[in-house]
Amino acid sequence: MSGGEVCDDGNMVDGDGCAATCVVEPGFTCQGMPSTCTSDDACPVNPCLNGGTCSQGANGVTCTCAPGYVGATCEVATCLVGLEGGRVHSAVLGTDGTVWAWGNNAYGELGDGTMTTRSTPMPVPNLASVVAIDAWDLYTLALKSDGTVWGWGTNNYEQLGTGTASAFETVPRQAATPPGMVAIAAGFSHSMALRNDGTVWAWGWNNDGQLGDGTTTNRPTPVQVQGLTGVTAIAAGHRFSVALRSDGTVWSWGINSDGQLGDGTLTSRLTPAQIPALSGVTAIRAHYAHALALRDDGTVWAWGNNANGALGDGTTTNRSAPAQVLNLADVVAVDVGSLRSAALKGDGTVWSWGKNQYGALGDGSTVNRLLPVQAQGLTGVVMFTAGDTHALALDGDGVLQGWGANAFYQLGSNALGDHTTPIPSLFTCP
C-alpha cells in the first residue's frame, strides 16, 4: 500500500502509519490486513547511541547496538558479547576477545591449567582474539578471529579435534580444522565447525552418524559433512546434528530414536536430510534429544523428545516433525538445556518450558512446565544462555544474572544450592 490507500492497523491512533481515518499517512508504507506500517525514513532522528543503528516499525523505534553496548538506546557499556553454559560450568566472551569461565573444573573445563573449581570468574590464560564460544557437557570450544578452533575440557570422545588421544585438556588446544572457520557447535560427544565456504566439518564420536560423513567411524580430527553446502548456522545435540542453510531450510542427521531429526520418521541417518515443511528459519539450537528453530515471523518450532514438555506444545508427546511452541511470539533468540527450552522475546523478557529440576526455568518453582513461563525479575535482557540445568542472562543495565543449579558455582555466585529465580553473578567487567 502507499499514501492514500486504505489500511487497518486495529487502532484509531494517528502517527503510527495508518491514520484513524484508515488511510496511509505520508512517509509510511503499510502492508496486509491487519496492516503493519513502517516508516519510509527508518529514523528521521537516530536516538541510538555509541554507534547503534535505528529501525522504526509499528511498535516504534528499535536500536540495534554495536558490540559492547546494551540498553534501549545503547547507552550502557558492557564488556560481554557472548554467554555459554555447559553441564556444570559457564563461560563468557568479552568485547576484547578474551574468555572468562567459572564453575566445575574437574576435567579442565575452565581452561586455566588446573582442576580447581571456581566461584569467581577467571580469564582463560593464553587465549585472545576470540569471536565466538560454545560449551556443552564438560568442555568448551572457542573460535578465534583467524578462523582457528580451540577447545579444552573433557576429550574422552576426541571431541576437541586435536588428533591426540587424551582424557581431558586443562588448557586450550587447537583443533585440526581446515582454515576459514566462522562458527562452532559443541555437542555431547562430538563437535562441529562451519567454514566460510558454507561447508560443515565435524569430529568426535560417530556411533549414530552424527558426523554426517556417511559412516559410523569415530573421527579424532575434522571430516566434511557430506552433501551440505550454503550453510549459515549449525547446532550439535546428543548424537545428532542440525544445520541451517541460507535459503532458510533446516537439515539434520544422526540418531532419530525420539524424532530429534524432525523429518517425520524415527529413522536415523548417516548423512543430512531436509526437514520438510520448515522454512523461513533464522536460528537453530539442539540439545539432548530435541531441537528448536526460530522463524522469521518470531515463532518457535520444536521437535524430538517431549517427556518433560521441552517442545512447549502443552503435551508430553514426542514429535518427529516440527510443532509450534504455543503461547509464544515476538521471539528474537532461542536456546536449549537439558530437557528444556528457552526464548528471549523482543521486549527483553525470558521465557522457558520443559524440565524444571533445580529451578532451571527461573519461575520461582521446580514444577515442569508444558507451556512457556516467564523467568521472574528479569527485564531488558539482551542476551542469555541455557546451560544443562542452569541459565544466565545479561540485562540492559549490564548486570549478569543466573538461576537454576549452583552446586558447582556455575552461576558465578558463592550462594551454593538451587535458585529458582535469578541472582546476580560475581562477574564484573575488568
Automatic annotation (TrEMBL):
Q: Which InterPro entries match?
A: EGF, EGF-like_Ca-bd_dom, Myxo_disulph_rpt, RCC1-like_dom, RCC1/BLIP-II, Reg_chr_condens, Ub_ligase/GEF_domain
Q: Name all EGF-like domain ranges.
A: 39-75
Top-rank lineage group of the source organism: Bacteria
MF terms in GO: calcium ion binding
- Which keywords appear in this protein's UniProt record, sorted alphabetically? Disulfide bond, EGF-like domain, Glycoprotein, Repeat, Signal
**Pfam families of this UniProt entry?**
EGF (PF00008), RCC1 (PF00415), WD40_RLD (PF25390)
List cellular component terms (GO).
plasma membrane
This protein's name: BNR repeat domain protein
